[in-house]
TrEMBL record:
The lineage of its organism: Bacteria, Bacillati, Actinomycetota, Actinomycetes, Pseudonocardiales. The chain crosses the membrane at residues 20-39, 59-79, 100-124, 136-160, 167-186, 221-241. This is Transport permease protein. It comes from Amycolatopsis ultiminotia. Pfam families: ABC2_membrane. It is found in: Cell membrane; Membrane. Belongs to the ABC-2 integral membrane protein family.
Length: 244
């Protein structure tokens, strides 16, 4: 097994020893879906949503929950916790580059996030007959770019904070705006037009996820912006990373 493979396997074992984040990432989107989906009126078509049901348009927003919880809470807490406990100081004496550690964090948390997303989509289909994305390739590409872009923001906080509490505080600066712009607190069709426009180009790409879902077609510029967040954020996190 390669050095990165061993590191990723170790990070996966450590994550499973703190199952609270695994539970949040895997189960929380589905729990919220079921809790809100059974509210009267959520499964009725409305003129304000272009004839769609609220539940149909809200499912892509639930992806934000898994990505934000893991990328902006779990990852910063884990990496900054290593620094606080002196783990990173010991790793600094090994040939392991910082990029390996950050990439391993992204990989293991991405598996949890994608598992939670898959479970939520299955529950939406079974419980509320929500159709699957009409443009599946665009949906998957947006999901992956959105995942990396949100995780990159969490890595930036983790790379500079000295303590897990400090990392969590830094990540909170973008956590609540991402949840709001992503339509978690209020369905996006009910948000003001200017807020919807801003949210259409911010991670994790709720609007392009929704467009791919209903078959409206994703604007190329939205892919470009998400890719810029993903690549630029990851590169900045690696550059800012410090062992101590």
């Amino acid at each position: 097994m390669t050095t990165f493979g061993k590191l990723a396997a170790t990070e996966a074992k450590l994550l499973l020893r703190t199952p609270v984040w695994v539970a949040f990432g895997v189960l929380l989107p589905t729990v919220v879906l079921l809790g809100v989906g059974f509210i009267p009126g959520m499964d009725q078509p409305r003129d304000s949503t272009g004839g769609y049901r609220f539940i149909d348009l809200w499912v892509p927003s639930l992806v934000v929950i898994a990505l934000a919880m893991l990328g902006l809470q779990a990852i910063p807490a884990a990496v900054a916790g290593y620094r606080e406990q002196g783990v990173l100081r010991r790793l600094a004496t090994t040939p392991v580059p910082p990029a390996y550690l950050l990439l391993a964090q992204v990989l293991v948390h991405a598996v949890v996030a994608l598992t939670g997303t898959g479970l939520m989509l299955t529950a939406a289909r079974v419980a509320f007959h929500v159709p699957m994305p009409r443009h599946p390739l665009s949906f998957v590409l947006t999901l992956l770019l959105g995942l990396v872009s949100v995780f990159a923001l969490g890595l930036i906080a983790a790379s500079v904070a000295r303590t897990s509490r400090g990392a969590g505080g830094l990540a909170m600066i973008v956590f609540f705006p991402i949840m709001f712009l992503g339509g978690v607190y209020l369905p996006r069709p009910l948000l003001p037009q200017v807020i919807r426009e801003i949210g259409a180009y911010t991670p994790p790409g709720t609007q392009p996820l929704q467009d791919a879902w209903v078959g409206a077609g994703v604007q190329p510029l939205q892919f470009v912006v998400l890719a810029a967040f993903a690549l630029g954020g990851t590169a900045l996190a690696v550059r800012l990373f410090r062992w101590e």
